[in-house]
Amino acid sequence: MSQGTLQRVRFGMIGGGSGSAIGGVHRMALALDGRGELVAGALSSTPERARESAREIGLSAERSYDSWQELIAGESVREADDRVEAVSVVTPNHSHFEIARACLDVGFHVVLDKPMVCDSSEASRLAEAVASSGVSLTVTYNYSGYPLVREARHLVASGAIGAVRKVFVEYHQGWLANDLESSGHKQASWRTDPAQSGGAGALGDIGTHAEHLTRFVTGQAPSELCADVRTYVAGRRVDDDASVFLRYASGASGVLTCSQVCIGAENGLTLRVFGDAGSIAWQQESPEQLVFHDANGKRTVMTRGGDGLSRDAADATRTPPGHPEGFIEAFANIYRGAIERVRGIDSSLSRFAPTVEDGAVGVRFVEKCLSSNGSWVSLSD
Length: 381
Ligand SMILES: NC(=O)c1ccc[n+]([C@@H]2O[C@H](COP(=O)([O-])OP(=O)(O)OC[C@H]3O[C@@H](n4cnc5c(N)ncnc54)[C@H](O)[C@@H]3O)[C@@H](O)[C@H]2O)c1
Hints:
Structural class: alpha/beta
Distance between the termini: 41 Å
Bound molecules: nicotinamide-adenine-dinucleotide
Strand order of the largest sheet: 13-12-11-10-6-9-8-7-14
Radius of gyration: 20 Å
Strand content: 15-25%
CATH superfamily of the largest domain: Dihydrodipicolinate Reductase, domain 2
Shape: globular
Largest sheet: 9 strands, mixed
């Protein structure tokens, strides 16, 4: 990866406090390349915990804020060369829209986790806010940051597997196979509360990752879908499982499944794409390999960092082959893209960093799945 000269981007973080699931990952990803620096935070929903969380990670007391509103107000009045330039929003889904829009309104770039917002109305309004603010918004669909996912995209785009016929994508977890939320488990509780999750369960939480990964690699979005959406755990108020048939305008078809009740599954995200001249297969839990079959069925196992991979894959690669990279590095590629976007640098990293439009497609996909009830619905109306 070319490092070039790039001035560090000053970040604030909202959410992601002590004990959160993904806040620490965002901070590692931000820090990995030394191109971003966390200087301010409103890290928790309660002031005491926000301050304690800030102390734990060495944020100055002066720039540890008791609420996200105070962070925006406090940073906005600092000198331009000192205030935050971008804010990472790492809170439960229901607060994404309000916080992200407030950041955009004062000219802070935004990095926002998925699902981007709770409905298409919020997504449209956020896209308008991005357009009128002149700053950027990047959604952390982090699985698209893996070097071999970039290679998979390159192979499909360059015609190596011919015209896409079939896609199979699955994202299976097992941690919600039982009524974990009734034990008070924090992450399970808000994810299964429709008021905080945004209405969807597994579909919003991991189905959106599967949708984006497939669209990123194939370069195509489905035009129609037919979804069987289920809630297996008694009393649960959101979906915990979905099986979705996909049809594409190109004539391709596919199946997306996402489930959080598959006992034994951890983060089983797998993508297979079959074309009329070959196929590719990639698994998130073995991300250093990409399997390619050519038209004669000859199998090639590509390894990250290996000879002959595309520039896009090389741009996303840090360590030599055989020195494993993983989740943090892929996440950091999204951050690197966001940072280059903030600095106006055109690169594969900035071009591939998911946008507000990508976030909106994910939100719409979830809505359409929830309204399908086993019937085909169009994604274009
Ligand atoms: N990209 C990924 O791989 C990935 C993985 C996990 C979670 N996520 C997403 O990240 C977000 C956070 O999920 P999580 O599992 O880390 O949640 P969490 O419950 O573990 O942590 C949420 C944090 O946000 C804080 N918070 C809540 N409301 C706040 C507010 N109004 N102001 C400031 N802080 C507030 C909480 O105190 C907590 O520290 C969600 O949108 C989730 O979908 C993404």
